[in-house]
Specification:
The complex is a heterodimer of chains A (about 500) and B (about 450).
Chain A (H helix, E strand, L loop, with lengths): L21 H4 L38 H13 L21 H7 L2 H4 L11 H18 L3 E3 L5 H18 L7 E5 L5 H8 L3 E5 L9 H7 L4 E7 L11 H11 L2 E6 L11 H4 L3 E4 L19 E3 L11 E5 L2 E5 L15 H36 L16 E4 L10 H10 L6 E2 L8 E4 L7 H20 L1 H5 L12 H6 L13
Parallel strand pairs in A: 2-3, 2-4, 4-5, 5-6
Antiparallel strand pairs in A: 1-7, 6-7, 8-9, 10-12, 11-12
Helix pairs in contact in A: 3-11, 5-11, 6-7, 11-13
Chain B lengths: L8 H10 L33 H13 L2 H4 L2 E2 L12 H7 L2 H4 L11 H18 L3 E2 L6 H16 L3 E5 L4 H10 L6 E5 L8 H7 L4 E8 L12 H7 L3 E6 L17 E5 L15 E5 L12 E5 L5 E5 L6 H4 L12 H38 L5 E2 L9 E5 L4 H10 L2 E2 L2 E2 L1 H4 L6 E5 L6 H16 L1
Parallel strand pairs in B: 1-13, 3-4, 3-5, 5-6, 6-7
Antiparallel strand pairs in B: 2-8, 7-8, 9-10, 11-12, 12-15, 14-15
Helix pairs in contact in B: 4-12, 6-12, 7-8, 12-15
Classes of the chains: A alpha/beta (about 500), B alpha/beta (about 450).
């Protein structure tokens, strides 16, 4: 496959031009930034030849301005919350306050070496300890670890904690984790990484967990039941308390995937509901920017009986002094160093800026916006579930199958209307799903405009499906061939092989 | 104070009325019967909201308490390195179009990031001398653990041989990752700072999934793997090299050593020390492992009208498709940090990276020579080559010297007793990067000399 990205506008096209790759723009001998250091020639005679790299160092050669323009142009080919409404369900794409960027730039944190002695990092440890406390209050949990680098990493952490817990009780028979079929794919993947067998809980007709199936699946082999609250359908399980009771009675632990924490922050506490373990995603509820795929952060809260197993190192506070300890009972470190500190600073900044009442308003307005948009979209496509939704809702485009259209086709027309697209094809239990999560930071005006556009798009889909099949028309490219990409994967730039 | 909720009161009322509700609290019926409105949790411990100035002051004052270390002259590495970062890096990476985007699920609206990931994969694959690289993992330690998991799955064997030169924290993270699996980690000891071929040759066998070597080692020495690839492949095992990317500007790459998979910590590529994170996990591999490796992959393809473009590809490996049969549970990774490393590498180019790495090598060797000249100080593993870190044996307790240096504004070498045990309590792992100046080196050596004379 050839890679000829012209970087020039196509005559008469509605599409912005693509940008050539760094290697296509590379000019042998061009210099960018001149870093401190010495010329490699000055090491001649001292640097042992047998250690020397003989392979070419095929990095691009560009001026600083070339590089600045390259990445600025690439940014123009990318949509973020800063540029577009981003109703990507289950991702909570809310506004990321700019002041938090400033906090992450404070030199005392940005330039702190993670292997400094504790006396040199008292400020950091205080901040992180404060965040643990705040999250403990919000989650109703007695202990919190900030170590996990993302939500899925938090899941793995929680699962390993459960493993250690049962080992500590001498119970080695609990080898199964029960997970609803509507769960995020990370849940079963994390369970498998933790060495457990996954048993899938099928959803009932209302999208909630079927109690009879749960009763049937629970046994002395069940270690953990993982629940997403509200479920990925944006529905709060009406039988949650009953389910908690059943799980407790079986001797298993209860895990909450807190990816949807934005729906109930300040309103409900997982600990109060009976959960033993919960992870949240700071890049969702706590407004830390997702950066196009990370950095995330996935703090995990646990009840007191699980605290001894939290990953090391733990922050210990004695009087006004903070230190790092590694308890014998810990599952051990789950990543390098203490945590994704600069992400965690932003998360604490968000909590402190909003305060308790502000956080409660976040959840209430997340509910309001989702329900308002749901109501504005009623009559467009059928929704899974009924009544009020939580912070998001799922529509099904299945009936447009008669026109030869899929949810993904609608998504492309939504891009042309000037938005990012809803999550499509998830949850897996809804055919042709469009999962919509507006978040609390979007205005009524934005929701009204989106609702009108969405309604118009569904009408076009019914009256003129061919038009939808032609979307998108305004984006730099349209409908990449994903099958070809996977058949013979080209994962590096062929032009880089010609640079010496 | 601010809650970033844009609604006016009138709009809120209007929206509620469309729903047939009187006030916001009516929405709480969603949570019935788990919650009665009276049972809302007490949020007073969270305090009241703060304005920007108060917030910034609070964090700045906590930052000040880190100052002894964060403003110190850094002679410490051990997995986190103080390198030069051009100003253009943060200017570009901080652009909202990148910063506030999600994983590029919609390729038409995400070509910028997809191309950057593709370019990142290219630069890491070339730097490590491998065929391909993924879009990133959490950090170096988890990248190494994921590389090991690839080898375990590929070979269906249950012993992992780990060089003693691997950072002991990376080893612990690997052990945590293996907690739920029937896989045993065995350590292959270093001799004089390198892995003896004969020791590995005596251990390989039908139970061994892989050997993981480190270059440079945790102790700074440059390990050498002549014949390792043939030896391991001869017994059906895989060869993994965990390498510092900064050093690869000068040192033999994992590809040149014949590695099947390579991992590394990407922090030296333009990421600040960051109080330990977020960092950047690097994973690269030979082409034949393309369907085995974890994480996002951006690939080249064509759009419907024949334009070259980029997509996330080979998603059938991933959790959202394969669920419990996925290669890994990873979803969010460190894409923004990958972009940061890519911008850094583009700004420096091959000459700049070689210049920085040469500066590190040169400064470290200068520092080592001068410290070694102080009576009572000796270099351990003197026969081995080192890159930009080295271990010195001191006549005094290393912790005490480290504390003394900090009072002088110097973050000295890492005292090793805490990590490696009491027999290492007089040993320090020193590092000098290209950023250290002649004056900083001279002053530090003088302070060490004076403190030992006392």
């Amino acid at each position: 496959m050839s890679l000829q990205l012209s970087g020039v506008e196509e005559p008469g096209s509605t599409r912005p031009p693509m940008e050539p790759t760094l290697w296509q723009k590379s000019r042998p001998g061009a210099r960018g930034v001149f870093p401190p250091g010495v010329s490699p020639e000055t090491l001649e005679g001292r640097f042992p030849e047998r250690l020397r790299r003989k392979a070419p160092l095929s990095l691009p050669e560009l001026s600083e301005l070339d590089v600045v323009r390259h990445f600025t142009r690439l940014s123009h080919l990318n949509r973020g919350v800063d540029t577009h409404f981003y109703p990507l369900g289950s991702c909570t794409m809310k506004y990321n306050p700019k002041i938090m960027d400033r906090i992450a730039e404070i030199a005392g944190f940005r330039d702190l070496h993670p292997r400094s002695e504790p006396e040199g990092m008292q400020g950091l440890l205080e901040v992180l300890h404060t965040l643990e406390d705040s999250l403990g209050h919000l989650l109703g949990m007695e202990a919190v670890t900030l170590a996990p680098a993302a939500g899925a990493h938090g899941e793995l952490t929680g699962i390993l904690i459960a493993r250690r817990y049962f080992e500590s009780k001498g119970d080695r028979n609990r080898t199964e984790i029960l997970i609803p079929d509507s769960a995020h794919g990370t849940n079963p993947a994390s369970a498998a990484m933790g060495g457990f067998t996954v048993r899938v809980l099928p959803s009932g007709s209302d999208g909630g967990v079927d109690l009879a199936h749960l009763a049937e699946s629970l046994s002395e082999k069940t270690a953990l039941v993982m629940m997403t609250v509200p479920s990925t359908l944006g529905v709060f399980e009406k039988d949650l308390l009953k389910m908690v009771e059943m799980v407790k009675a079986s001797g298993a632990l209860l895990y909450m995937d807190g990816a949807n924490f934005n729906a109930f922050i300040g309103l409900l506490r997982p600990g109060d509901l009976g959960f033993d373990i919960v992870h949240i995603n700071t890049h969702k509820t706590l407004a830390t920017p997702h950066g196009g795929g990370g950095p995330g952060s996935g703090p995990v809260g646990v009840k007191a009986h699980l605290a001894p197993f939290l990953p090391s190192p733990r922050i210990r506070k004695e009087g006004d002094r903070y230190s790092l300890v590694s308890p014998e009972t810990s599952i051990g470190p789950i990543r390098s160093f203490i945590g994704s500190s600069l992400v965690l600073l932003r998360a604490l900044g968000y909590l402190r800026m909003l305060g308790g009442e502000g956080l409660r308003r976040v959840a209430l307005y997340a509910l309001l916006n989702a329900n308002y948009l749901r109501a504005r979209l009623s009559g467009t496509l059928p929704r899974t579930g009924s009544g009020l939704c939580a912070h998001e809702f799922v529509l099904s485009a299945k009936e447009l199958g008669a026109e030869g259209l899929h949810a993904s086709d609608l998504a492309k027309e939504i891009l042309d209307a000037g938005y990012y697209a809803p999550t499509i094809s998830f949850p897996l239990i809804v055919p042709e799903a469009l999962m919509i999560e507006p978040t609390e930071t979007e205005s009524k005006e934005t929701l009204d405009r989106f609702a009108e556009d969405f309604r118009r798009i569904v009408e076009i889909a019914r009256s003129n499906p061919e038009r939808i099949k032609g979307a998108p028309r305004r984006t730099p490219i349209a409908r990449p061939d994903e099958v070809a990409a996977a058949r013979d994967p080209v994962l590096t730039d062929p032009a880089s092989l010609h640079v010496s | 104070m601010a809650d970033f909720i844009p609604h006016t009161e009138a709009e809120t009322r209007e929206m509620l009325s469309l729903l047939g509700l009187d006030n916001l609290e009516d929405l709480l019926s969603v949570y019935a019967p788990s919650m009665a409105a009276s049972s809302l949790p007490d949020l007073s411990p969270l305090g009241i909201g703060q304005d920007e100035r108060t917030l910034l002051e609070w964090f700045s004052s906590r930052g000040e308490r880190n100052l002894p270390a964060s403003r110190a002259v850094v002679f410490r590495g051990a997995g986190a390195y103080d390198h030069f970062i051009p100003a253009a890096v943060s200017a570009l990476v901080g652009r909202g179009e990148f910063l506030t985007s999600y994983t590029p699920y919609q390729p038409e609206a995400s070509q910028g990031l997809l191309q950057a990931i593709f370019e990142f994969q290219t630069s890491i694959a070339r730097l490590y001398g491998m065929d391909l690289a993924n879009a990133s993992l959490y950090d170096g330690a988890t990248a190494m653990a994921e590389a090991v998991l690839v080898a375990v799955r590929e070979t269906e064997r249950s012993v992992v041989l780990l060089s003693e030169g691997i950072d002991p924290e990376c080893r612990s993270v690997l052990e945590t990752y293996l907690e739920g699996m029937s896989v045993r980690v065995e350590i292959v000891p270093l001799k004089g700072g390198t892995t003896p071929y004969s020791v590995l040759a005596a251990r390989v066998g039908p139970d061994v999934a892989c050997f993981v070597g480190s270059t440079p080692t945790f102790l700074g020495t440059v390990d050498q793997f002549d014949g390792f690839s043939e030896l391991l492949h001869g017994s059906g095992a895989l060869f993994i090299v965990h390498a510092n990317p900064h050093s690869l500007a000068l040192l033999k790459s994992p590809g040149e050593w014949g590695a099947d998979l390579a991992s590394g910590e990407g922090q030296p590529l333009g990421l600040p020390l960051s109080s330990g994170g977020p960092y950047l996990g690097l994973l690269s591999a030979r082409k034949k492992f393309v369907r085995r490796i974890p994480g996002r992959l951006a690939g080249l393809t064509k759009d419907r009208e024949g334009r070259p473009c980029f997509v996330l590809t080979l998603q059938a490996r991933e959790q959202h498709i394969r669920r419990e049969k996925a290669n890994s549970n990873i979803c969010s990774n460190e894409t923004l940090l990958a972009l940061q490393a890519l911008v850094y590498l583009s700004l420096l180019g091959p000459d700049g990276l070689r210049r920085a790495a040469s500066g590190s090598w040169s400064n470290a060797h200068e520092l080592c020579a001068r410290l070694q000249a102080i009576p009572g100080i000796s270099l351990i593993n003197p026969e081995a080559d080192f890159f930009h870190e080295f271990v010195l044996e001191l006549p005094v307790d290393a912790d005490a010297l480290s504390r003394h240096l900090l009072t002088e504004g110097i973050l000295g070498g890492l005292p090793l007793g805490g990590l490696l045990g009491p027999s290492w309590s007089r040993r320090m792992l020193w590092c000098a990067t290209e950023l250290r100046t002649e004056d900083e080196i001279a002053r530090t050596v003088e302070i060490v000399r004076l403190s030992l004379e006392k």
